[in-house]
Amino acid sequence: MRHAILLALNYEPGAGDLPAAGSYYDTGGILMDYLQHPFDSKRHTVFSKKGMVATSQPLAAQAGIEVMQNGGNAIDAAIAAAAALTVVEPTSNGIGGDAFALVWVKDKLHGLNSSGPSPQNISPEAVKALGHEKMPVHGVVPITVPGAPAAWAELSRKFGKLPLAEALKPAIRYAEEGYPLTPILGKYWKLAYDKFKTSFTTEEYQAWFDTFAPDGRAPEIGEVWSSPGHASTLREIGETDARSFYEGPLAEKIANYVQKHNGFLSKEDLAAYQPEWVEPVSANYRGYDVWEIPPNGQGIVALMALNIFKNLSEPKWQSAQTYHEQIEAMKLAFTDGKEFITEPSEMPVSTEHLLSDEYAQKRAGTVGETASLPEPYELPKGGTVYLSAADEEGNMISYIQSNYMGFGSGIVVPETGIGLQNRGADFSLEAEHPNVLRGGKRTYHTIIPGFLTKDGKAVGPFGVMGGYMQPQGHFQVVTNTIDYLLNPQAALDAPRWQWIEGKTVLVEPHFPNYLAQELVRKGHQIQIETDGGAFGRGQIIWRNPETGVLSGGTESRTDGVVAVW
User: Fold this and answer.
1) Which residues are catalytic?
2) Rounded distance, CA 82 to CA 458, Å?
3) Transmembrane stretches, by residue range (predicted)?
């Protein structure tokens, strides 16, 4: 019998009494101690009652708890952590990025799509006239309207208890006073600098070096870095509820700098922007509802893969057959997702059909005993931050924001700390492709927050950041949690795999060798990847529906922490 998740989810009928923390319980073939797990991590699941914030950076998590202790709720805490992450993890996000959120308030789940569209005056012809055969990755051309500041303001307006300016105070303090770099942050900062110093050689990139390499080098691990311009920008965003960013002095600085270097983003594009509240979409996986933001985001890929996979054989712990079927389900979902996902009004097939039993059963019927060769895609690496927060009132939030591909476009507006995203890089210049570039259009979007419910009650927020790893991470966290009853930390620590293209699958060094060999015999091309960042970075918070106790896990592949109150 499939049980529920210890200290977090409702048990299925007949599953027995909820065990005490630390006791052993049956996970369907393996005895698992809640305080231990079989993966190489020294982290343990964290428990709390009044509040919890899980992020990839300790100072950001602490910012959220600080705001909660000053009278804010989980939504205020998430805003505080998100703003702080633009300061303490600029390698993965920034003020000039996009954001999405799933918010549980008063027994209802709300979805926020705060991804910005392309400039109105851009077109495939205009891009090609600049000498590009496909959308460039860096520079002013792929810059789209940033949605993150609007997300903070909208979340604060609709669900927050504190003024936006209050929620941004910790982030402003970190930017003004500076903070010491953590190990994984320092690693990726240096990698970016080493790459950019040879590729960012023209004038429009100089502000990136002025901001992020002020001493002519990347700051070292443990070295204090500050950004006064970033602090001033955050203060102005807080004081104006983000309107300065879209129709005030900040908007003018952004548009003027982009257009000075022959980009397309204008003041009119910024002034017209509003985030969109959307109805989340879901798939029922073995009794639990898994929720995602609908397209233009790629969260539907995780749901499609779960639907396909549940039509295959019963999952077994550490089984090569189960891994094979998981990988094949993800391949099919991704192949179709990359083919169809764009603005909903321009998708050639409906979201409802892609999540239907008919679609899942037909795709499951194509899974054989050996690795398939679907239409291949070049899947770039991502640059994203994910966080989750919960409070004692029952509010919970799954939040994600990103500049994309690390530092985004590489364009920083001088003396503001605003690093602009490069989301336009995912547009196609092919006229017949659903995701073809068009003015005022939102592109296929990689960043996705997740949320889990059961029988209409919140279980909690979860997410795994990292470009095209994200739906694959969501899929693996959900199956680890529901199929194998892994606690939050164990579900995150479990060895991950990532399908890249064709038959190529990356696995972590601690992925069991005997399973890798069996997958090779099934035709998969298994490659060991030593960079843990390739497999995404996640956070989980579950709530015990009877006691209200929160249990959280954070990513062992980065500098993450679960802060509690």
Assistant:
1) 384
2) 22
3) none
Query: What residues contact residue 548 under an 8 Å CB cut-off, 6+ apart?
Result: 49, 392, 394
Coil, strand or helix at 3: coil
**Residue with more model confidence, 36 or 267:** 267
What pTM, to 2 d.p., does this model score?
0.89
Q: How far apart are alpha carbons 360 and 291 in whole angstroms?
A: 17
The ranges assigned to domains in the chain are: 51-243+382-426, 278-376+461-552
pLDDT over 60 (residue 556):
yes
**Cα end-to-end span (Å), the chain:** 35
Inform me whether the pLDDT recorded for 3 exceeds 80: no
Lowest mean pLDDT of 101-115, 410-424, 490-504, 524-538, name the range: 524-538
Rounded Cα distance, 64 and 61, in Å: 5
pLDDT per position as a tens digit, 123-143? 999 999 999 999 999 999 999
Nearest 5°: phi and psi at 543? -115, 130
Q: Residue 544 has which token pair?
A: 């015990």
Q: 1 pLDDT band (50/70/90 cuts)?
A: very low
DSSP 377: -
Tell which residue, 99, 191, 109, has the closest CA to residue 154: 99
Virtual torsion, Cα 507, 511, 514, 515, nearest 10 deg: -60
Q: Provide the angle, in degrees to the nearest 10, between the axes of the packed helices 74-88 and 169-177.
A: 20
CA distances from 147 to 59, 92, 200, 296, 403 (A): 23, 15, 25, 14, 10
Provide CATH code, domain 278-376+461-552: 1.10.246.130
The residue behind tokens 């996705």 is 448
d(CA 171, CA 177): 10
CB 338 within 8 A of CB 362: no
For residue 508, give the nearest of 40, 79, 135 by alpha carbon.
40
**What is the CB neighbour count within 10 angstroms for residue 430?**
12
Q: Parallel, antiparallel, or unpaired: how do β-strands 561-564 and 51-55 relate?
A: antiparallel
CA distances in angstroms from 103 to 7, 73, 106, listed in the order given: 22, 12, 10
